[in-house]
Write a structure and sequence with these properties.
By secondary structure, the protein is an alpha+beta fold. The protein is built from 13 helices and 16 strands. The protein has helices spanning 20-33, 122-130, 139-146, 148-157, 170-175, 177-187, 211-224, 268-273, 292-308, 342-347, 352-370, 381-388, 393-401, and strands at residues 7-14, 39-46, 52-54, 75-79, 87-90, 102-105, 108-111, 165-169, 192-196, 206-208, 227-232, 238-246, 251-259, 284-285, 313-322, 327-334. Bound molecules: adenosine-5'-diphosphate and magnesium ion (MG). Adenosine-5'-diphosphate binds next to β9, β15 and β16.
Length: 405
């Protein structure tokens, strides 16, 4: 790809996720931060039902107050998993006499979807099939980070401090809630946190001071997820977030932020609805008022955690800390953070455009590295099986002939 040719970049936002709205804002922040001299932006919007759309009107946030499918200039689109397309099929099912579909090659894709069906490895899986370079973490790191329980296990294995917790399956809760409550009361004192295992943006999160609230919050969380985490509440703590940028060889940490919460914990409202520009406008202290020593330990732990999940691209890593005691726990890893944590990199001296360029460089490097592995292993197995007949078929045939199947 010649350096001065503008790259065709698909930016994907929205999604079949409870964090749909947050993603629409993040997607627009990313599209607006891309250097127009370098990128030809193709907006790719996935609505709450999982339908894909493209078209210039999707670059305007006001369009999301209207009926998107009916908007002039908006078309259905699919990202083809077939490597020959290396991109999009626009208007895949043309209706009308003269209507036709068309292909559009993409040089890279930038996912800005938070949570389910976007930050959890599923969208990344599609990108791997398309063989198009994509920004952000790969399939495994996305899936591990998005699953709070599995992430806790991996971090513990790597000696990273996490909050004690236990896992509740929806089915077990429905079958015998009393047994589950007993298990929790034997493990923890109140207060405890109740969290859907794979969601985000504080949706479905509860803080229970007593058994009655515990049961209510588990009921809520099991409506949103089949697995729920119960965690000891870390009291008298502050939240400290650190963004990272890089891959499993070199990772760089941002300055630290301390989000300010007036409630019992950082709610969706506090994260997104205060300033009206998503995560970018939440109340926070930057840099977080910590000693240089504690700052460095948290930054180092963030980098270690990113490497432990084989992270690539970026993530915002959130901690719960007791600065006076010099104690902290890694709470969660967001591989597609709100507003891409661009505000943290700005404070670290990197512009939004520079962060985006870096993420796409990392995406291309990852693809080059991937292409060093061969996925081709030729054998005569098919010919052999063809000559011998597929096992089990014979049995089925004779079974079918005497109607025993
Ligand atoms: N164990 C805990 N102790 C104290 N506060 C917590 C704990 N777990 C979560 N919180 C609070 O709840 C908020 C949301 O929890 P988090 O695990 O980050 O879920 P989400 O993925 O929805 O952001 C955190 O930002 C923090 O304010
Ligand atoms: Mg969080």
């Amino acid at each position: 790809m010649s350096a001065n040719r503008r790259q065709t970049l698909g930016v994907i936002f929205g999604g079949r996720s409870v964090e749909h709205d947050v993603s629409v804002v993040t997607g627009h922040q990313i599209m607006n931060a891309c250097d127009p001299a370098r990128y030809d932006i193709i907006p790719l919007y996935i609505d709450r039902d999982g339908r894909w759309f493209t078209g210039e009107p999707l670059r305007d946030l006001k369009s999301f107050e209207k009926d998107i499918p009916a908007l002039p200039g908006v078309q259905n689109v699919v990202l083809s998993p077939d490597v020959r397309q290396h991109g999009l099929i626009i208007n895949p099912l043309p209706t009308g006499l003269f209507a036709k579909s068309q292909s559009l090659r993409l040089d890279a894709v930038f996912p800005a979807v938070h949570g389910s069906h976007g930050e959890d490895g599923t969208l990344q899986g599609l990108f791997e099939l398309t063989d198009i370079p994509y920004a952000g973490c790969g399939v495994m790191a996305s899936a591990v980070a998005n699953d709070k329980w599995i992430c806790k296990q991996v971090l513990q294995q790597n000696g990273i401090p996490v909050v004690e917790g236990l896992l509740v399956h929806r089915r077990d809760w429905e079958n015998d809630p009393d047994a589950i409550v007993t298990k929790i009361l034997n493990a923890f004192n109140f207060p405890v946190f109740i969290k859907p295992d794979t969601l985000g943006s504080s949706i479905g999160i509860g803080r229970a001071e007593d058994e009655k609230l515990l049961r209510v919050y588990i009921d809520v969380a099991t409506q949103l997820d089949r697995r729920v985490i119960i965690e000891k509440a870390i009291t008298d703590c502050v939240e400290i977030n650190c963004a990272v940028l890089g891959d499993n060889r070199t990772v760089r940490a941002s300055v630290l932020e301390q989000p300010v919460s007036w409630e019992q914990f950082l709610t969706y409202e506090e994260k997104y609805l205060r300033g009206g520009e998503g995560m970018k406008s939440a109340d926070r202290l930057i840099p977080a008022p910590l000693t240089p020593e504690l700052t460095e330990r948290i930054q180092q732990t963030a980098c270690d955690a990113f490497k432990a999940i084989d992270g690539r691209g970026t993530a915002r890593i959130d901690f719960l800390a007791r600065p006076d005691e010099g104690v902290f726990y890694l709470n969660e890893i967001n591989t597609m953070p709100g507003s891409l944590a661009l505000y943290l990199w700005r404070e670290t001296g990197m512009s939004a455009a520079q962060v985006i360029d870096k993420l796409l460089d990392l995406a291309r490097e990852a693809q080059t590295e991937k292409r060093r592995s061969t996925y081709n292993y030729k054998t005569n197995l098919i010919a052999l099986t063809a000559s011998r007949g597929v096992k089990g078929l014979k049995g089925a045939k004779s079974a079918r002939s005497n109607n025993s199947l």
